[in-house]
Specification:
Blueprint: E1 7-8, E2 29-37, E3 40-51, H1 55-65, E4 72-75, E5 81-84, E6 92-100, E7 104-115, E8 120-122
Parallel strand pairs: 1-8
Antiparallel strand pairs: 2-3, 3-7, 4-5, 5-8, 6-7
Length: about 120
């Protein structure tokens, strides 16, 4: 198991092709909360972000990711990369189809994971 804050190269762990999702960085939210209970300490991580892109193109990718055993890498505009999940702690992925007013529509993606190591950092 990797300790919290571990830095590593995610590509060396990949066994499948990466799917890229063009989320809106200014509206994205990454939260990590450490909780202590009778079973010990664990991290509760959540990420949510809107995707405003070609709905027909991305709907099939989002449907593909739903229910799959995936590890997610979130890359910010600054270049910093966060990794949610691991082989031992698989995150859940969900999305909703949104329509806001007459001019804005897209998806909102959500990734959640409970783990013993929390968010990891990719190089």
């Amino acid at each position: 198991m990797l300790p919290p804050g571990t830095t590593f190269e995610l590509a060396s762990f990949l066994t499948a092709n990466m799917k890229k999702l063009p989320f809106v960085p200014e509206s994205a939210q990454l939260d990590e909360k450490w909780t202590y209970d009778d079973n010990g300490k664990y991290s509760d991580v959540s990420f949510s972000a809107p995707i405003r892109a070609n709905k027909d193109e991305y709907r099939s990718i989002l449907q593909f990711l739903t229910g799959r055993r995936c590890i997610f890498q979130i890359e910010l505009n600054s270049g910093k990369k966060y990794v949610i999940g691991s082989k031992q702690f698989i995150p859940t992925f969900t999305f909703t189809d949104t329509v806001s007013g007459n001019s804005s529509s897209g998806f909102i993606i959500k990734i959640a994971c409970k783990s013993l190591h929390g968010v990891l950092f990719a190089q």
